[in-house]
Automatic annotation (TrEMBL):
It is found in: Membrane. It is a multi-pass membrane protein. The chain crosses the membrane at residues 167-192. The keyword Transmembrane helix applies. It holds the Pfam family ASC. GO terms for cellular component: plasma membrane. InterPro entries: ENaC (IPR001873), ENaC_CS (IPR020903). This is Pickpocket. GO terms for molecular function: ligand-gated sodium channel activity. Keywords: Ion channel, Ion transport, Membrane, Sodium, Sodium channel, Sodium transport, Transmembrane, Transmembrane helix, Transport. Gene3D superfamilies: Acid-sensing ion channel domain, YojJ-like. Belongs to the amiloride-sensitive sodium channel (TC 1.A.6) family.
Length: 228
């Protein structure tokens, strides 16, 4: 089972390399999986190539089912899709499946099936249950058992390796380790490089303006009367 963290929902499907169920809609399936998408892609190519589809392929009521005369046609269509996969390695524009855009599903469950078989001693089984074999004379029996191999399983989760927060944290940690730089030092650097020069320039212009006013309009001189 593969899941995807919620932090990847803001990425594009091409960047995260998977589709959420609400992002990719199929014509013949309600639930998106890569296998369903590839099957629908093969169906569309077969319909385009032969004008009909195989009986085992998904279809609507208006789609024709291929008869015996079209067996070679839909077999050739499947072979051509396999050839397109090989040609895609050389020429990226030749892949028909790439046009189908069948990326993996962000949440998927895959079962690894194993098959084992053994001889069934059904006569001993009937004898153990005390059942008569008269009516089953000459018959052959088989038993099919389906079960989970293990009661528990390990899941895989798709998440971002380095996000913006992780990148800033790593940069801040390295700068603080090798250069003694902290957020306060960065704030001081920004202040002295941007705000401080404008403050000094503004104070200089204000002082110069006051000096020009003083020289252009000197204050009046008042003389005191002399006493006799």
């Amino acid at each position: 089972m593969i899941t995807t963290s919620d932090g990847l929902r803001y990425y594009t499907p091409e960047r995260r390399q998977c589709f959420f169920n609400h992002e990719r809609h199929l014509k013949y399936f309600k639930v998106y999986t890569q296998q369903n998408c590839e099957l629908e892609c093969t169906t569309n190519y077969t319909l385009h190539r032969c004008g009909c589809v195989k009986f085992s392929m998904p279809r609507d009521d208006r789609t024709e089912v291929c008869g015996a005369s079209k067996i070679q046609c839909y077999n050739d269509a499947e072979d051509e899709l396999l050839e397109e996969d090989v040609k895609f390695i050389v020429d990226k524009s030749r892949d028909y499946r790439a046009k189908c855009n069948c990326l993996p599903a962000c949440t998927s469950v895959q079962y690894d099936a194993e098959i084992s078989q053994a001889d069934l001693d059904w006569k001993s089984l009937f004898a153990a249950f005390r059942q008569s074999l008269g009516e089953q004379d000459g018959a052959q029996f088989a038993r099919l058992t389906i079960y989970f191999k293990e009661a528990q399983f390990i899941t895989s989760k798709r998440s971002e390796l380095y996000g913006v927060t992780d990148f800033l944290a790593n940069c801040g940690g390295l700068l603080g380790l090798f250069m003694g730089v902290s957020l306060l030092s960065l704030a001081e650097l920004i202040y002295f490089c941007s705000i401080r020069p404008f403050t000094i320039l503004r104070a200089y212009r204000a002082k110069r303006r006051e000096s020009n006013v003083f020289f252009n309009h000197p204050p009046p001189i008042i003389e005191k009367p002399k006493e006799f």
